[in-house]
Amino acid sequence: MKPLTNVGSLLYLYLEEIDPGDGAELSDFIVQAGAQLLRQDNQRNWVPLIVKEISKKQYQVMGNSLVYAIAEAAGVERVWCIVADEQPITEELCRVLTGEQVPKINLSLASHDEIYAAFQYLLNVPGSPLKGVKLAVAVSRVDEAPRQYWKNFTPITKLKCGITKGKKLDTLKSVFYLEPQPLPEVITDPVLLEEFKVSELKKMAKKRGLSDYTKLKKPDLIKQLSQS
C-alpha cells in the first residue's frame, strides 16, 4: 500500500468523505446560529477543518469539530480542510490548539511557574472544586514535595494545602499527569516515607543498621529514617 501523500495540504473536500470522529460537546445554539452565518457567507468556511487521511479519499476530523458540525447543519457540500499526520500527539495538539481539549503537564518534572499557572487556571474555572484553596500555599507545598517519585496524586492530600480526596483531588488530573522516576536507594524525605507501610519502613531501618526499630510506631520510624 502506497503511503498517503496529502499531509500538510489544504484541500477542498466533500463533507461525505469526512468521518466526524468522536467530536466535542457542542452547543446546539452555536451550531445552528453558525450554520445560518455560513449560509449567508456563500458557504465558505474561512477557518479550515483539521483532518487526517485514513484511506484514499477518506478522512477523519482531528480538530475544529465545530466547523464540521456547522457545515453539516448548513447543508454545505464541501469544506476547506488542512490534512495532518496520524500521530497521537498530533491529534492531541490539534485538539489543544482548537480549544477542544485542556493540555496536561507532567507534575513529576513541572517548574514552579508551570504548577502555579495550572492551579490558577483550575481556581478560575466556574464552580471549581478548588475554590477556597490558597493558591500560594498549595503551589509552594506541591512544588517542594518529592513529586518526582509519586505514582498517584494521593500524597497531595497529606501536604496540608487544602486539597483533600474527592473532587478537589480529581480536578488536578484534568491538568496534570505523572511520570514517576525510580526511588532513590536511601530515602530520607519524611513526606515520601509517609507513603510506605510500617513493615516496609522497618526493612529500610534494618538495611541501614538502625537499632531498636522493631517496636517503633510509624511516626517514630519516619523520624529516625529521615534523620539517618
From TrEMBL:
InterPro entries, per database record: SAP_dom_sf
Xref: Gene3D superfamilies: SAP domain (1.10.720.30)
Protein name: Rho termination factor N-terminal domain-containing protein
Taxonomic lineage of the native organism: Bacteria, Bacillati, Cyanobacteriota, Cyanophyceae, Leptolyngbyales
